[in-house]
From TrEMBL:
Keywords: Signal. GO terms for cellular component: extracellular matrix; extracellular space; membrane. Residues 1-18 form the signal peptide. InterPro entries: GH, Glyco_hydro_79. It comes from Paralvinella palmiformis. GO terms for molecular function: hydrolase activity, acting on glycosyl bonds. This is Heparanase.
Length: 483
């Protein structure tokens, strides 16, 4: 059944453009099953924050975070390089090895993190402090203390490790300056340490979490690969389109940003291909639309979804295995808010998780306006039969709708449409989001809603109203590569 709101929408915006698309029966990349992952920034350890509204005992939080599993939950960010495990805050200043005022992660913090990640079926990726130095080397004694504590508590099977955050930006006078080779060697020390614990026999090490892919950042990636490439699972780079705290909401649909990611990822891939480990995976290790905590009352609204969904599309197309969204909770760009309730990007991510599978397909478009962007994957087998195809697309044109015509015959000619629109009169700045005209809400603290499509004929074409995004599944496509 098509809802009334939805009907109104289709009638109001008669298509003025139309795009022809053809889905090629060829897999361009296979992403990780944990492709869509997320962070919590370790500013939560600051004495002034101490987790704030993040409520570890909230059943709603568990439902929401588990809703995105399997995924990687990364604890990292700039303060990673001054987080110290199990030292009383008032003694921290005494740490001779550390050049800046450290912040403490307590045993209780760690217990909460590990227990929630296990309950929610997540891997916990913890970013260790690379600024803890012992002479010219990484000082690993605090990590030994953390690892020993893990063993004493039976933790380990879902833990992975990183070392340092954005080491190409260690330019403050209170930060140790590190050469690319030194960073690579410090990763080797970490890998040897991890391997000396049987509890971590399945743990991975990834890095070097640079922001940028040229200059110093490129040199650090090369140093990391040269020294530690043999032992590590992925190269992690960070990416943001623009600075958030001074941005206007219109930046979030400014077309100039959408083209930036592809060349960035190509350069990262080229650096890896040119190394001795050309097959090494590439992850976006920390990423969102806008850096500097996103934009207040914008990054947690419907409008944030355009660049986020596009990033998921471009990354998969570009051969990225994992995209770690900054943040699940915290700052302006949290997927859930301080009431432990979903923001629009949570719903968008949930829908993505349910509909989009691991195999990435090529889509050829014709007569497409630059404001329309279309991606295709095999559908997730969790909800659809093998052979099904999922398309997702967005339209950043503010006035024109687009009509997407699939230039192929597929199965019984039916498609499932999942149109996401702003949930209230705040429009693009709505904190609520509707799916096919119905506002998305949790059923109760333990239950996420069913995400229901509207069934239509493929022949009708897919109407993509101005400034909206949507998913379409072709359930009976029977595409051979998707079987
Ligand atoms: C955290 O969640 C629990 C369980 O719902 C609730 O009892 C408690 O009041 C919450 N704490 C805060 C600070 O909101
Ligand atoms: C803490 O560190 C600051 C800056 O290095 C220093 O001035 C101060 O004396 C230290 N305090 C203690 C108690 O060590
Ligand atoms: C590592 O993974 C294997 C295979 O899944 C499992 O049997 C083993 O118990 C795991 N080891 C640890 C220490 O988690
Ligand atoms: C989009 O961004 C570009 C580059 O920052 C800027 O020149 C242009 O004015 C922006 N367009 C709009 C409509 O804001
Ligand atoms: C990769 O190697 C090629 C051939 O040496 C070189 O032209 C290219 O600039 C390198 N790319 C990167 C990103 O280092
Ligand atoms: C964001 O919205 C809140 C609540 O409406 C308001 O108190 C706050 O001042 C707004 N912040 C900015 C930067 O607009
Ligand atoms: C969280 O989002 C819900 C739904 O949009 C809203 O009702 C609630 O006020 C928000 N809470 C906070 C603290 O922003």
């Amino acid at each position: 059944m098509m809802s009334k709101e939805c009907l109104v929408m289709f009638v109001l915006f008669t298509a003025t453009k139309s795009t022809l698309i053809k889905i090629s029966d060829q897999v361009v990349h296979e992403v990780s099953e944990k492709f869509l992952s997320f962070t919590v920034d370790d500013t939560v350890f600051y004495p002034s924050i101490r987790w704030g509204a993040f409520n570890f005992s909230s059943p709603r939080l568990l439902t929401l975070i588990a809703g995105l599993s399997p995924a990687i939950w990364r604890i990292g960010g700039s303060p990673a390089d001054w987080v110290v495990f199990n030292v009383e805050q008032d003694k921290l200043n005494m740490s001779a090895a550390h050049k800046t005022t450290p912040i403490a992660m307590t045993k209780h913090d760690w217990d909460n993190l590990v227990r929630l990640s296990v309950k929610a079926n997540l891997r916990l990726l913890f970013d260790l402090d690379l600024q803890l130095r012992l002479g010219s080397h990484w000082g690993l004694s605090n990590t030994v203390e953390l690892f020993d504590y893990c063993v004493s508590q039976g933790y380990g099977f879902n833990l992975d490790w990183e070392l340092g955050n954005e080491p190409n930006a260690y330019h403050r006078p209170d930060q140790a300056q590190l050469t690319p080779d030194q960073i690579g060697n410090d990763f080797v020390s970490l890998v040897h340490l991890v391997r000396s614990y049987s509890a971590f026999q399945n743990s991975s090490v990834v890095g070097p979490d640079v922001v940028g892919v040229d200059g110093e950042a490129a040199d650090i990636i090369k140093g990391f690969l040269k020294e530690a490439g043999q032992y590590t699972k992925a190269v992690t780079v960070h990416h943001y389109y623009f600075r958030g705290d001074i941005a206007k909401w219109t930046e979030y649909i400014n077309l100039t940003h959408f083209g930036n990611l592809k060349p960035y990822l190509k350069t990262a891939k080229d650096i890896i291909r040119n190394s001795s480990y050309p097959q090494m995976a590439l992850w976006l290790g920390e990423t969102d639309d806008a850096w500097h905590s996103g934009t207040a009352n914008v990054s947690d609204r419907y409008v944030s979804g355009f660049l986020w969904l596009d990033k998921l599309g471009v990354s998969a197309q570009s051969g990225v295995d994992v995209v770690i969204r900054q943040t699940f909770w915290g700052h302006n760009y949290g997927m859930i808010n301080d009431s432990m309730l979903p923001n629009p990007d949570y719903w968008l991510s949930l829908l993505y998780r349910r509909l989009v599978g691991r195999l990435v397909l090529d889509v050829v478009t014709e007569h497409s306006p630059v404001t329309t962007r279309v991606y295709a994957h095999c559908a997730s087998h969790r909800y659809y039969k093998p052979g099904a195809v999922t398309l997702f697309m967005l339209n950043v044109a503010t006035k024109n709708s687009d009509k997407i015509i699939i230039n192929q015959q597929f199965g019984d000619g039916k498609m499932d449409v999942y149109l996401m629109t702003p949930g209230n009169e705040d429009g693009l700045l709505s904190q609520e989001v509707s799916l096919n005209g119905h506002i998305l809400k949790m059923v109760d603290d333990h239950t996420l809603p069913e995400l229901k499509p509207v069934q239509k004929d493929i022949d009708e074409g897919i109407i993509l109203p101005p400034t909206t995004y949507l998913f379409v599944v072709l359930p009976s496509a029977k595409l051979s590569v998707c079987k």
